[in-house]
Design brief:
Layout: E1 4-5, E2 10-13, H1 14-27, E3 33-38, H2 39-44, H3 46-49, E4 59-64, H4 73-85, E5 93-98, H5 100-112, E6 118-123, H6 126-132, E7 137-142, E8 145-152, E9 157-160, H7 170-187, H8 189-193, H9 206-223, H10 238-250, H11 259-276, H12 282-295, H13 303-312, E10 326-329, E11 335-339, H14 343-354
Parallel strand pairs: 2-9, 3-4, 3-5, 5-6, 6-9
Antiparallel strand pairs: 1-2, 7-8, 10-11
Helix pairs in contact: 5-6, 6-7, 6-9, 7-9, 7-11, 10-11, 10-13, 11-12, 11-14
Cofactor: Zn(2+); NAD(+); Co(2+)
Protein name: 3-dehydroquinate synthase
GO molecular function: 3-dehydroquinate synthase activity; metal ion binding; nucleotide binding
Length: 355
């Protein structure tokens, strides 16, 4: 597959990516190479990755415990200390090998260590391939609040090798699929329609679907790298989805949701908001709701869950001057940003989701 040119960095695919990586290592005089992984990717992905690496550099592997609950500043401090102890300097290179938690956190660690060292993302989950590793957003959670601390800073390159998906469990694949569905809903109706009957998808061609998803996100980010305008469209499903994800993460009586599971709920809820603002038709809403519910389990919300979720909305990063802003779809394949919604309508959306 042809490489995709992002804002000042390339996105390479499969074998071509390793060729580009090794050429980059040859042409640049790095002092040391640090590979940041979590406990899952250290076990399952490092053995696949290291044989492709052609370098005489000293290689150090830095591991942290897997899980969204470890995507915090405390983990960053631990890694900054390890980098210091291992003699990392400004000519060091960091490779982030893992899912969205690794690329988000690793990119933030590299962007801030000694005011910034070069880093490369090698995403190993579907979610990180089609979303987290592309676009230059790096950061960590603040308590249970998603991605509150971070920077926009691009990697040297992104290397997407779909062979790593062989290591990914089915629920994680579904989590990544949610972002692909979102890309269709906000940008490309034909792409969305390819997912209406999952049984008909030839997964031998899944690389092409991943490629198109990356292409869509990159086309949006190139227009608006710092999220002042059209890039906000990528937050469709995320205003409520992130609040739901945060609530389930902090509540010990709830089973923690994967990112894509929460976003799937968020997309149904925010499609309902789009319907009642007359941006989509009832037929479009029914198609979205039924299609997403056919892929993801229905999440149970008790009456006393909704108010705390609504309170979390105030921390959403898109909010301006204390007002909650939504990115809503205006027909499948189009988006309308900076939409205000009353709480009563959000409550209605939750009631409709349950039905």
């Amino acid at each position: 597959m042809q490489s995709i040119q992002a804002n000042s960095y390339p996105i390479h695919f499969n074998e071509k990516g390793y060729e580009a990586l090794n050429l980059h290592l040859t042409e640049n005089k790095y002092s040391k190479l640090f590979i940041i992984v979590d406990s899952n990717t250290n076990e399952f992905c490092i053995p696949k990755f290291l044989p492709f690496l052609e370098t005489d550099l000293t290689i150090e592997i830095i591991e942290f415990d897997a899980g969204e609950e470890n995507k915090n500043i405390e983990t960053c401090v631990q890694i900054w200390n390890v980098l210091t102890e291992l003699g990392a300097d400004r000519k060091s290179l960091v490779i982030n090998l893992g899912g969205g938690v690794v690329t988000d956190l690793g990119g933030f660690v590299a962007s801030t260590f000694k005011r910034g060292v070069d880093f490369i993302h090698i995403p190993t989950t579907l979610l990180s391939m089609v979303d987290a590793s592309v676009g230059g957003k790096n950061g960590v959670d603040l308590g249970n609040l998603k991605n509150q601390i971070g920077v926009i800073n691009v990697p040297i390159m992104v290397l997407i090798d779909t062979q790593y998906l062989e290591t990914v469990p089915q629920n994680e694949m579904r989590s990544g699929l949610a972002e692909m569905l979102k890309h269709g809903l906000i940008y490309d109706k034909e792409y969305w329609e390819q997912f209406l009957d999952l049984k008909s998808i030839d997964f031998a061609d899944f690389d092409a679907l991943i490629y198109r998803s990356v292409e869509i996100k990159n086309e949006i980010v190139i227009q608006d790298p710092t999220e002042k305008n059209i890039r906000k469209s990528l937050n469709f499903g995320h205003t409520l989805g992130h609040a739901i994800e945060s609530y389930f993460l902090e509540n010990e009586n709830k089973t923690t949701l994967l990112h894509g599971e929460a976003i799937a709920v968020g997309m149904i809820l925010e499609s309902y908001l789009s319907l009642h603002k007359k941006l989509i038709s009832p037929e479009e809403y029914f198609q979205i709701k039924s299609s997403i519910k056919s892929i993801y389990d229905t999440i149970i919300f008790e009456e006393n869950d909704i108010e705390p979720i609504l309170e979390l909305l105030i921390h959403d990063k898109k909010n301006e001057y204390g007002n909650i802003q939504f990115a809503l779809i205006e027909g499948i394949g189009k988006i309308k940003i900076n939409q205000s919604v009353e709480n009563e309508l959000i409550l209605e959306a939750f009631q409709d989701y349950k039905s």
